[in-house]
Amino acid sequence: MKLNFCFHLILLLLLQMTIPGSAQCPLDAILNPSAPAKRISCFSVVNSGKLSFCPAGSVVTGCACGYGCGSWDVGGGKPHATTSATQ
């Protein structure tokens, strides 16, 4: 009896959450059509050696160690908080 009561109580709470208009955070509040659009620019950089530099206006955002940490993610914008690699 107690298990049956708990099941129906949980079912009732779940059904209440699916009723439109009763959501605590409506989708319109999450999506902001006036937000500025972000652009991602991708480009290939062929540079080798320990003293390689990023092109102007770009920064290293990560390192992929599939090639002995010789493959770096380079992008325009701010780098991640921690960017480190060993060679």
From TrEMBL:
The keyword Disulfide bond applies. Residues 1-23 form the signal peptide. Its main location: secreted. Keywords: Disulfide bond, Hormone, Secreted, Signal. It is found in: Secreted. The keyword Translocase does not apply. SUPFAM superfamilies: Resistin. Belongs to the resistin/FIZZ family. This is Resistin. It comes from Balaenoptera physalus.
